[in-house]
Amino acid sequence: MGMESKYIWMDGKLVEFEKATIHVLTPALHYGAAVFEGIRAYETSKGPAIFRLKDHAERLIESAEIFGFRDLEITAQDVFEGCKAVVKANGLGDCYIRPLLYLTGGGWNLNVDGGRGALAIAAWEWGNYLGEEALAKGIRANISSFTRHHVNVSMTKAKVSGNYANSFLAKTESVRLGFEEAILLDAQGYVAECTGENIFIVRRGKIYTPATAPVLEGITRHAIHTIARDLGYKIRERPISRDQLYSADEVFVCGTAAECIGLSEIDFRKIGDGRTGPVTRSIQKVFHDAIRGNDPRYETWCDYVD
Ligand SMILES: Cc1ncc(COP(=O)(O)O)c(C=O)c1O
Hints:
Shape: globular
Strand content: 25-35%
CATH class of the largest domain: Alpha Beta
Low-confidence stretches: none
Structural class: alpha+beta
Number of domains: 2
Bound molecules: pyridoxal-5'-phosphate
């Protein structure tokens, strides 16, 4: 994956890609003491637009506060402006944007107050996280042998870098077993989410998704909720068991990196007829119009770079 670009935003200014470095003893590297966002920009008829940038910028600051950062000098407005600046300076259209707010200058005593927060933002061209064929064919997933975070062990609403050790465990296992993605169950044994996506099932024309308590409140999840309702589907949050996945008519996952992708198979059991189903397709279509600024109902979700 080519992540190179000309510039990275660091501490309030653009620096050349090669010069965007931090010291090996930065505590964020040792303990995952950082929070991050994953954001996408899309080429539209009015130039590049960053999808739901305000929501992502606000979630980054919320994540930092949940992790324990106090008196942060970095604001959501800084993140908002930095993301636009990095896309513009690199001349990017369709791209992925990665803001990282990390603990530096102290923190070796495992105390957030021992250091300060610093912000870096990179952007690069990146295709679909689940592979280029995912949209056309759907993906195969397994139920992970690893459990998703308990709500009082890791803060599930915060995109804390250290939390993603759990995603690494599940995803590595899943890919080594020959699947494309892992579905994690929560500490009670109900379906939680994937390593980087929220999950939905369709059964007899109705859509169900787990409540947000043990999972990340995905911004794409919210967009999909809104689109599905506007399409006239009934959508409910409720606990979902493993076998309800197996017997669903359709299962799909969504996230910024993956966008909205159908599941063709889970644990060697075909979902529906093994192809992305009609409900998923109808939502995907509107979602793709929305991210490119082609649907006036959702234009406020697009933050134009210029
Ligand atoms: C664990 C997890 N769940 C869900 C999501 C989807 O969130 P979003 O739609 O805000 O990208 C992500 C991606 O950030 C994630 O890492």
